[in-house]
Amino acid sequence: xxxxxxxxxxxxxxxxxxxxxxxxxxxxxxxxxxxxxxxxxxxxxxxxxxxxxxxxxxxxxxxxxxxxxxxxxxxxxxxxxxxxxxxxxxxxxxxxxxxxxxxxxx
Length: 106
Ligand code: HEC
What we know:
The protein is mostly helical and about 110 residues long. The chain is built from 4 helices and no strands. The protein has helices at about 5-30, 40-50, 65-80, 90-100. The longest helix is centred in the N-terminal third of the chain and has 29 residues, at about 5-30. It binds heme C. Heme C binds near residues 51, 58, 71, 75 and 79.
Protein backbone atom coordinates (compact mmCIF):
# COMPACT_ATOMS: atom_id res chain seq x y z
CA UNK A 1 0.00 0.00 0.00
CA UNK A 2 1.44 3.38 -0.99
CA UNK A 3 1.18 6.28 1.50
CA UNK A 4 -1.44 7.90 -0.79
CA UNK A 5 -3.54 4.70 -0.76
CA UNK A 6 -3.17 4.46 3.01
CA UNK A 7 -4.42 8.01 3.45
CA UNK A 8 -7.42 7.35 1.19
CA UNK A 9 -8.25 4.21 3.10
CA UNK A 10 -7.94 6.04 6.44
CA UNK A 11 -10.33 8.76 5.25
CA UNK A 12 -12.87 6.21 4.05
CA UNK A 13 -12.60 4.29 7.33
CA UNK A 14 -13.09 7.46 9.39
CA UNK A 15 -16.15 8.31 7.29
CA UNK A 16 -17.68 4.88 7.87
CA UNK A 17 -17.07 5.10 11.61
CA UNK A 18 -18.78 8.50 11.72
CA UNK A 19 -21.82 7.21 9.82
CA UNK A 20 -22.14 4.22 12.13
CA UNK A 21 -21.72 6.40 15.23
CA UNK A 22 -24.40 8.86 14.09
CA UNK A 23 -26.77 6.01 13.20
CA UNK A 24 -26.28 4.43 16.60
CA UNK A 25 -26.85 7.72 18.39
CA UNK A 26 -30.03 8.57 16.46
CA UNK A 27 -31.32 5.01 16.87
CA UNK A 28 -30.79 4.96 20.61
CA UNK A 29 -32.26 8.43 21.08
CA UNK A 30 -35.37 7.36 19.16
CA UNK A 31 -35.97 4.18 21.15
CA UNK A 32 -35.39 5.71 24.52
CA UNK A 33 -38.61 6.76 26.21
CA UNK A 34 -38.26 9.89 28.27
CA UNK A 35 -39.20 9.38 31.92
CA UNK A 36 -42.68 10.61 32.78
CA UNK A 37 -42.96 13.77 34.87
CA UNK A 38 -43.66 13.52 38.62
CA UNK A 39 -41.78 10.18 38.75
CA UNK A 40 -42.91 8.01 41.62
CA UNK A 41 -46.02 10.04 42.47
CA UNK A 42 -49.44 8.42 42.74
CA UNK A 43 -50.63 10.33 39.67
CA UNK A 44 -47.68 9.21 37.56
CA UNK A 45 -48.20 5.63 38.67
CA UNK A 46 -51.91 5.75 37.89
CA UNK A 47 -51.26 7.27 34.47
CA UNK A 48 -48.58 4.72 33.55
CA UNK A 49 -50.80 1.88 34.73
CA UNK A 50 -54.12 2.92 33.15
CA UNK A 51 -52.79 4.63 30.02
CA UNK A 52 -49.71 2.53 29.29
CA UNK A 53 -51.12 -0.97 28.92
CA UNK A 54 -52.27 -0.82 25.26
CA UNK A 55 -49.62 1.59 24.04
CA UNK A 56 -46.69 3.34 25.71
CA UNK A 57 -47.89 6.17 27.94
CA UNK A 58 -47.71 9.26 25.74
CA UNK A 59 -45.49 12.08 27.02
CA UNK A 60 -47.79 14.59 28.74
CA UNK A 61 -45.87 17.39 27.01
CA UNK A 62 -46.89 16.01 23.60
CA UNK A 63 -50.37 17.55 23.80
CA UNK A 64 -52.04 20.65 25.17
CA UNK A 65 -54.29 20.59 28.22
CA UNK A 66 -57.39 20.99 26.02
CA UNK A 67 -56.36 18.03 23.87
CA UNK A 68 -55.74 15.83 26.89
CA UNK A 69 -59.23 16.35 28.26
CA UNK A 70 -60.58 15.07 24.92
CA UNK A 71 -58.09 12.19 24.65
CA UNK A 72 -58.86 10.78 28.08
CA UNK A 73 -62.59 10.65 27.23
CA UNK A 74 -61.82 9.20 23.80
CA UNK A 75 -60.00 6.26 25.43
CA UNK A 76 -63.01 5.19 27.50
CA UNK A 77 -64.69 3.19 24.67
CA UNK A 78 -61.37 1.50 23.83
CA UNK A 79 -60.92 0.58 27.48
CA UNK A 80 -64.45 -0.84 27.58
CA UNK A 81 -63.92 -2.73 24.29
CA UNK A 82 -60.76 -4.33 25.65
CA UNK A 83 -62.73 -5.57 28.66
CA UNK A 84 -60.68 -3.49 31.07
CA UNK A 85 -62.39 -1.86 34.06
CA UNK A 86 -63.62 1.62 33.06
CA UNK A 87 -61.86 4.65 34.52
CA UNK A 88 -63.78 5.80 37.59
CA UNK A 89 -64.67 9.47 37.81
CA UNK A 90 -61.84 9.92 40.31
CA UNK A 91 -59.26 8.11 38.14
CA UNK A 92 -60.33 10.03 35.08
CA UNK A 93 -60.04 13.32 36.99
CA UNK A 94 -56.64 12.44 38.50
CA UNK A 95 -55.24 11.39 35.13
CA UNK A 96 -56.64 14.43 33.31
CA UNK A 97 -55.28 16.78 35.99
CA UNK A 98 -51.87 15.07 35.86
CA UNK A 99 -51.74 15.44 32.08
CA UNK A 100 -52.97 19.03 32.19
CA UNK A 101 -50.35 19.99 34.79
CA UNK A 102 -47.61 18.64 32.55
CA UNK A 103 -49.16 19.42 29.18
CA UNK A 104 -47.34 21.09 26.33
CA UNK A 105 -48.17 24.58 25.17
CA UNK A 106 -48.85 23.80 21.52
C1 HEC B 1 -57.73 -0.56 25.86
C2 HEC B 1 -56.51 -0.05 25.28
C3 HEC B 1 -56.15 1.40 25.55
C4 HEC B 1 -55.99 2.03 26.76
C5 HEC B 1 -56.11 1.43 28.16
C6 HEC B 1 -55.63 3.40 26.46
N1 HEC B 1 -55.54 3.58 25.11
FE1 HEC B 1 -54.93 5.27 24.15
N2 HEC B 1 -55.13 4.32 22.35
C7 HEC B 1 -55.61 3.04 22.18
C8 HEC B 1 -55.64 2.72 20.76
C9 HEC B 1 -56.09 1.41 20.13
C10 HEC B 1 -55.15 3.87 20.09
C11 HEC B 1 -54.94 4.01 18.59
C12 HEC B 1 -55.56 5.20 17.94
C13 HEC B 1 -57.03 5.09 17.72
O1 HEC B 1 -57.56 3.98 17.46
O2 HEC B 1 -57.70 6.14 17.80
C14 HEC B 1 -54.85 4.85 21.13
C15 HEC B 1 -54.33 6.12 20.90
C16 HEC B 1 -54.05 7.06 21.86
C17 HEC B 1 -53.53 8.37 21.61
C18 HEC B 1 -53.11 8.93 20.26
C19 HEC B 1 -54.28 9.50 19.54
C20 HEC B 1 -53.87 10.22 18.29
O3 HEC B 1 -54.72 10.93 17.78
O4 HEC B 1 -52.73 10.05 17.84
C21 HEC B 1 -53.42 9.02 22.80
C22 HEC B 1 -52.90 10.42 23.05
C23 HEC B 1 -53.92 8.10 23.81
N3 HEC B 1 -54.27 6.92 23.20
C24 HEC B 1 -53.99 8.41 25.15
C25 HEC B 1 -54.45 7.53 26.12
C26 HEC B 1 -54.66 7.89 27.50
C27 HEC B 1 -54.46 9.27 28.09
C28 HEC B 1 -55.08 6.76 28.13
C29 HEC B 1 -55.49 6.62 29.59
C30 HEC B 1 -56.67 7.34 29.98
C31 HEC B 1 -55.12 5.69 27.15
N4 HEC B 1 -54.73 6.21 25.94
C32 HEC B 1 -55.43 4.37 27.42
C33 HEC B 1 -55.94 2.14 23.16
C34 HEC B 1 -55.88 2.39 24.51
